[in-house]
């Protein structure tokens, strides 16, 4: 489950559940839940649903375990034997012939967790909220890390990032008290993911760095792959291309061998976002398109929606908005559920990017108002940058200046270096010189010229640059001549040297 192909883990766990059902129903239930976890990690929504549904049938026709049934409140240990010692035999009374009683009832925590998960996977979010909220309530007085991790998962599914962080922090404290590297690595995974969802990327990076160490100490490469994927996402915010590549490669190397769809989707998203930060929207759109579009290559069902705003931005900037309209309709359904606090503002931003000349203003202003309600410097700064760029290109320079200035402050506050550099280029093109840069050098270039200069410095031909930026080769030739004149360089080698020097 944590250091091998998760598809194999699911089959083994289902076999365990069938063997345990008669004599140890509480352990059979633990095996079923972990089998559902394996299907989740693999991104197999049908297998996840069938596993959750099959547990009810597998416990016997006469048992009172369905949704809404009366349940025993006692805990029967919804964990695997490898996670803690066996439950006392009195947990489920035995018949005289050695078989466990068939009137065992699933405990309330497990029932609510299962019902909430089933409802979400069946696209019935209105039926999921109540059970998942009860999971959080029941976990408040619980100190077992396995239960607290289930509570953190429920909170993330509800979009309650604060509750997810609280449950994850308690699980981490419990794991460290028990000196359990296994639970420590998993608790750090929930904490890192929760911080990413909240827009606190530096904190997410700190948790994920610890998580990699704990996962490798426990011998759990699958958990380490998830942490590497989150480190790649954090690095994509900061504009650290080398770190993105390093962590994404580490995540994908394990994810592809072991069938970890969630980790793979996060790593691909991180790579695409790094492309977008570097002014390469065409590459970002090409990478994200299969992940967010319909078909067999779509990303993990719990993650691909998070990448939709990035894809819409990349597709529009690359000059291909037609591919983004369909996924925005799906994203609107997701945003309405409330599982992601940033989604409503991101949806308004997507609408602005795709809107006509007359409608974009209102959508951008709506997005900024929604950002005010949820916080998060990075997402708000991205909206300010896109709005400022849109205003500048319509020669509304006085309106564009404060938007771009606010974007620069936001990016600098959250350490988004590459995004801040993009914003400085827009400010220069708008007629304002950001105070942190000295005049001269690359600061003399327009944003488009700067993008072309960087691509050429990386070794791309004019034709390759034209393809990346979705313009003609003739346009690249024209801009490159102006770049050489503005910088006073005579060759691509001199240009590459200047770009490298200023980057340092």
Overview of the structural elements:
The longest helix has 18 residues, at 25-42. The two termini are 43 Å apart. The model is unreliable at 58-102 and 435-439 (pLDDT under 50). The chain is mostly helical. Helices cover 70% and strands 0% of the residues. The protein is built from 24 helices and no strands. The radius of gyration is 26 Å and the shape is elongated. It has helices at residues 6-20, 25-42, 45-58, 108-121, 125-139, 145-158, 161-177, 181-198, 201-218, 221-238, 241-258, 261-277, 281-292, 304-317, 325-337, 343-354, 360-374, 377-393, 397-413, 417-429, 447-457, 462-469, 473-487, 492-503.
Order of helices and strands: HHHHHHHHHHHHHHHHHHHHHHHH
Beta-strand segment tally: 0
Strand content: under 5%
| Main sheet properties | none
State the low-pLDDT regions, or none: 58-102, 435-439
- SS-derived structural category: mainly alpha
Amount of helix? over 70%
Shape: elongated
Measure the end-to-end span.
43 Å
List the helices and strands and how they pair.
Elements lengths: L5 H15 L4 H18 L2 H14 L49 H14 L3 H15 L5 H14 L2 H17 L3 H18 L2 H18 L2 H18 L2 H18 L2 H17 L3 H12 L11 H14 L7 H13 L5 H12 L5 H15 L2 H17 L3 H17 L3 H13 L17 H11 L4 H8 L3 H15 L4 H12 L1
Summarize this structure briefly:
The chain is mainly alpha-helical. It has 24 helices and no strands.
Keywords:
mainly alpha; 24 helices; 70% helix; 0% strand
């Amino acid at each position: 489950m944590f250091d091998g192909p998760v598809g194999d883990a699911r089959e083994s766990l289902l076999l365990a559940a069938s063997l345990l059902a008669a004599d140890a129903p509480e352990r059979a239930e633990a095996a079923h839940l972990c089998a559902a976890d394996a299907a989740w990690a693999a991104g197999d929504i049908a297998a996840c649903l069938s596993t959750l549904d099959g547990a009810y049938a597998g416990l016997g026709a006469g048992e009172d375990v369905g949704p809404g049934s009366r349940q025993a409140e006692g805990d029967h240990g919804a964990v695997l034997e490898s996670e803690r010692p066996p439950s006392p035999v009195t947990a489920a009374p035995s018949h005289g012939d050695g078989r466990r009683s068939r009137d065992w009832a699933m405990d309330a925590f497990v029932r609510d967790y299962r019902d909430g998960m089933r409802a979400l996977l069946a696209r019935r979010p209105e039926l999921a909220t109540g059970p998942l909220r009860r999971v959080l309530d029941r976990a408040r007085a619980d100190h077992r890390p396995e239960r607290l991790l289930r509570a953190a998962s429920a909170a993330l599914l509800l979009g309650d990032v604060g509750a997810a962080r609280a449950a994850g922090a308690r699980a981490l404290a419990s794991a460290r008290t028990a000196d359990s590297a296994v639970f420590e690595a998993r608790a750090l995974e929930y904490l890192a993911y929760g911080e990413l969802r909240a827009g606190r990327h530096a904190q997410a990076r700190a948790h994920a760095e610890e998580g990699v160490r704990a996962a490798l100490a426990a011998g759990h490469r699958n958990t380490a792959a998830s942490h590497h994927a989150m480190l790649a996402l954090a690095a994509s915010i900061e504009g650290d291309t080398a770190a993105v590549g390093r962590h994404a490669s580490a995540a994908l190397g394990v994810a592809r061998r072991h069938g970890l769809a969630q980790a793979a989707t996060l790593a691909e998203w991180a790579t695409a976002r790094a492309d977008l930060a570097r002014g390469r929207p065409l590459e970002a759109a090409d990478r994200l398109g299969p992940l967010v579009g319909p078909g067999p290559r779509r990303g993990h069902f719990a993650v691909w929606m998070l990448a939709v705003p990035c894809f819409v931005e990349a597709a529009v900037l690359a000059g291909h908005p037609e591919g983004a309209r369909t996924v925005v309709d799906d994203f609107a359904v997701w945003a309405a559920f409330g599982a992601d606090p940033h989604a409503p503002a991101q949806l308004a931003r997507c609408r602005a990017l795709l809107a006509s000349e007359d409608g974009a203003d209102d959508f951008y202003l709506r997005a900024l108002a929604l950002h005010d309600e949820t916080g998060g410097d990075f997402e708000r700064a991205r909206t300010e940058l896109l709005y400022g760029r849109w205003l500048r290109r319509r020669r509304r320079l006085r309106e564009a200046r404060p938007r771009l200035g606010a974007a620069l402050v936001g990016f600098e506050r959250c350490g988004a270096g590459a995004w801040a550099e993009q914003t400085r280029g827009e400010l220069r093109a708008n007629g304002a010189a950001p105070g942190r840069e000295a005049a001269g050098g690359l600061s003399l270039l327009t944003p488009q010229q700067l993008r072309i200069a960087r691509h050429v410095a990386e070794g791309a031909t004019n034709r390759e640059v034209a393809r990346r930026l979705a313009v003609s080769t003739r346009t690249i030739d024209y801009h490159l001549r102006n770049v050489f004149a503005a910088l006073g360089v005579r060759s691509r080698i001199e240009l590459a040297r200047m770009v490298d020097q200023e980057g340092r």
